User: Fold this.
Amino acid sequence: MAEQMVQRNWRVLIADDDPAICTLIDTVLRKGPYEMIMCNDAESALVAVDRQGPFDIIICDFMLPGISGIDLIERLRGKESTRGVPILMISGHTNYAMDGRAKNAGANLFLNKPFTISQLRSAVSHLLSKREAYFGAQNL
Assistant:
């Protein structure tokens, strides 16, 4: 008897305090094999990582109440469980230095808001396709 392929859902942690952005991301990704956990600040994202992880990808905003998105990324990179998880940072700031700051903190990709549905899907697909390179084959 042939083995059946089991399609897994990619677990996505989203940290953004803008309900419209969370709804947009949820609407776009729900059409694919994704399970989303939404957090409206960095502190709740850190709690979710500890209590609801592991996650396959993390999407976070630059501007979050309390701890900034940059600080969140630095904390995530310091945790064993999220050290290699691909991170997509999003921001409404159009400052070109944001991309560099995000990547220096540990983000793998940066998207400016407003982004298109196609850009979001492409960024998430790209990060998940490169996941083995971030994690290493032994951790998949």
